[in-house]
Amino acid sequence: MADSSDEVPQDTDRSDESITASPRSPSDVDAADETSRDGSSKETVSPLDPTATAYRLLESVKRRHAPTPYLNSLSEADASDLETVRTDRRVGLAFWLNVYNAAAQLLLERRPALFESRVRFFRATAITIAGTALSLDDIEHGILRGGRSKYGLGYLPRLERTGLDRAYRLEVDPRIHFALNCGAASCPAILAYEPDSIDEQLDASTRAYLEEHVEYDAERGRVRVPRLCLWFVGDFGGRSGVRRVIREFDQIPPGSSPSLRLLSYDWAKAPRQFGR
Fold it and tell me: Which of 167, 169, 256, 187 has its CA nearest to residue 218?
């Protein structure tokens, strides 16, 4: 989840880590897929299965296994390898959510001081996909939010380019804000997403986050919601859209229209918030 503080020049550091992966189903992660701790890979994959590779990358980060084979596979992928990422909404959502969450955790681990300047943290190169170096901002705002600016409350287009074709952009789904974890204490839990169940998983993630971070006061006719609902209110369809979402997930009664108040956001660094 990106911060909305003032911009500074983009961090240009690059990571030289990289990888390969097995072509089996993404949830079938077992000892045969593990890499040695010196970063060497036991397996290669041809052709690349991008969903499985992104899933295993996140699992390797969670298990503290070497992520290098998966990073290399994603870096060396070409447009044909990533066709379903561009053309299938469910594949695209699962792929980019897993890539973002894995990349954020690796950035926190390898360059922890960056988080002290959140603008630099979100602008620093976090991962390379198909030969294109991407920051967390690129993935969240340039791709997952369909090219919307991190500023302007979700109503303005993003001027910066990711370096990837526009075909990678997704239609904004406000539930992604309850699935992206940048390492702040108020971020949602990190889960590994799969295309076949992405909508059910996003519903579950959204419900879990709202149940913890929404406070409804029926007597005063108001509800306190996560601050990210203001930062990206346009993604929700305005204030009425925020009410619709929290009503859909049973945080306010049907037919109610309370006034909205905002909870504070805790930016304390809190890496490795993996869910079960």
Answer: 256
Distance between CA atoms of residues 201 and 179, nearest Å? 9
**What's the confidence (pLDDT) of residue 46?**
52
Tell me which residue has tokens 């029926």.
218
Block means of pLDDT (10 residues each) for the chain, length 276 residues?
45 32 39 39 61 97 96 95 97 98 98 96 98 98 98 96 97 98 98 98 98 98 97 98 98 96 97 94
Question: Degrees (nearest 5) of the Cα angle 82, 129, 192?
Answer: 75
Please say whether the dihedral angle defined by the alpha carbons of residues 256, 262, 264 and 269, taken in this order, is positive or negative: positive
Per-position DSSP letters for 190-223, written without gaps between them: B----GGGHHHHHHHHHHHHHHHH-EEETTTTEE
List Cβ neighbours of 188 (8 Å cut-off, separation of 6 or more): 178, 179, 180, 181, 205, 208, 209, 273
Question: CA 104, CA 121: separation in Å to the nearest integer?
Answer: 9
Per-residue pLDDT at 47: 59
